[in-house]
Amino acid sequence: MNHLRTTTATFVRVLQQLRADPRTIALLLAIPLVMLVLLYYMFAAMPEVPGQPTHFDRVATAMLGIIPFIAMFLVTSIAMLRERSSGTLERVLATPMSKGSLMGGYTLAFALFAAVQAALTCWLAFGGFGLTIAGSAGGVIGVCILIGVLGVALGLLCSAFAQTEFQAVQFMPAIVFPQLFVCGLFVPRDQMPDWMQYLSDVMPLTYAVQALQEIRDHAAPTGLLWRDIGILAAFTVAALALGAVTLRRRTP
C-alpha cells in the first residue's frame, strides 16, 4: 500500500511539473504531428506503383511507433537530469520512497503522454491522411503506447549515466540512431550483412517496427506479433529494473 501511495504521489508530481512546462507538452504532442505532416507530403510527390501500397502506407506505420520512442526517450532523460541537477531527486530519495516507486511514477506519467501522443498521431494518419493497413488502428495505438513506454524506460536508464542535460542528449545518437539504421525501416533485415542482422536481433526497436509491420500486413494478430510484443515488454521491464538499480541516491 505504501508503495502504491508513493508511486501515485510521484505520478501526480510529474504531471504537475509537465503542466507547468508548455514547451515540453508541445514537444510531446505537437512535434510528432508536424513530423507526420512532413512525412506525408514528402511521399505525396513520389510516383506510386498501381496495385501496390503507397510509399506513405509502407513507412508511416513504423514511424507511428518510432516517433514516440524518440520523443519519450529524449524528454524523459532530460526531465530526470533536471530532477538531479536541481537537487529534487536527492531530497525525494532521502524520504522512505523506494527507487522502484520513483521509476514507476515517472513511467506512468510519461506513459499517459505516450497514450495521448499515439492517439493524436494515429488520428491524423488514419483520419487525415488515409493510412491503410490490414489490421486495426486500435492495435497500432496499443503497440505505439508500448513503444513509447519503452522509450521512457530507456531514457530513465540512460539518465543514470549522465551528469548534465547535454550528456543526456548525447545518448540519443548512441542509443537511438543505430537502432533506426538496423531495425528494417530503410532496408529489409534479410538484405543486410550478417553482422548487422545479428546486431538488429538485440535492438528493441527492431521488434517494435516488426510488430507494427505485422499489424500493417495482417488482418488478425499473428504469433510473430505477440512474440514481438512480449519482447518489447521484456526490454521495458529490464530497462526499468536496471534504471532503478543504477539510480544514485546522492548527486556526486
TrEMBL record:
Q: Which InterPro entries match?
A: ABC-2_transporter_component, ABC2_TM, ABC2_TM_bact-type, ABC_2_transport
Instruction: For this UniProt record, give its keywords in alphabetical order, as a comma-separated list.
Output: Antibiotic resistance, Cell membrane, Membrane, Transmembrane, Transmembrane helix, Transport
Short name of one Pfam family: ABC2_membrane
Coiled coil feature spans: none
Q: Which domain of life is it from?
A: Bacteria
Q: Which PROSITE patterns match?
A: ABC_TM2
Q: Where in the cell is it found?
A: Cell membrane
Q: What is its main location?
A: membrane
Keyword ATP-binding attached? no
Residue spans crossing the bilayer: 25-43, 63-81, 102-126, 132-157, 169-187, 229-247
Q: In this protein, which residues make up the domain named ABC transmembrane type-2?
A: 23-250
Membrane topology, from the record = Multi-pass membrane protein
Belongs to which family? Answer: Belongs to the ABC-2 integral membrane protein family.
Protein name, as recorded: Transport permease protein
| Lineage start | Bacteria, Bacillati, Actinomycetota, Actinomycetes, Mycobacteriales
